[in-house]
């Protein structure tokens, strides 16, 4: 893993977080408890702050960044960021699933209990309604989310990634 200070700012990562061996975390990034950053994922807080809540998983190949002197990135608790997603200079409230390959741009606010569908592009300044599913390019609301999706997908995925990260922390860093 590459954990690097930039301009005197170092990542703050609790001991119960899992950072994969080839993940990158740099600069003014702070994590809550039980987070994971997976293979080839990048959290680059070199030009502004990135604040990540508890039980957030940043899956393989995802990129979290922000914009110099303009936008920070804030990710609340219980958020799953899918493989190869980009989350840039925005706010993601609690209990959100950002699907694989989705892009969330600067100044967006993704409301709580929401899903951004795989491959969706959430354009700059979009306000995603809490409790909704957004899909498409550009992303638009397609429906309200059901309570079953909140527990069956959002919570399930976040909890699974806490379990998965435990497997990797327990197995150490041996290579074969």
Rg over C-alpha atoms, rounded to the nearest angstrom: 15 Å
Number of helical segments? 1
What is the distance, rounded to the nearest whole angstrom, between the alpha carbons of the first and last residues?
17 Å
Unreliable segments of 5+ consecutive residues: none
Strand content: 35-45%
Biggest sheet, in brief? 11 strands, parallel
Specify the helix fraction band: 10-25%
Can you offer a commentary on this structure?
There is one protein chain. The protein is mostly beta strands and 176 residues long. The chain is built from one helix and 19 strands. Strands 1, 3, 5, 7, 8, 10, 11, 13, 14, 16 and 17 form an eleven-stranded parallel beta sheet that branches. The two termini are 17 Å apart.
Topology:
Elements: E1 2-4, E2 18-19, E3 24-31, E4 36-37, E5 42-52, E6 57-58, E7 63-65, E8 73-75, E9 79-81, E10 86-88, E11 91-92, E12 96-98, E13 103-104, E14 109-110, E15 114-116, E16 121-122, E17 127-128, E18 132-135, E19 140-144, H1 147-171
Parallel strand pairs: 1-3, 2-4, 3-5, 4-6, 5-7, 5-8, 6-9, 7-10, 8-11, 9-12, 10-13, 11-14, 12-15, 13-16, 14-17, 15-18
Antiparallel strand pairs: 18-19
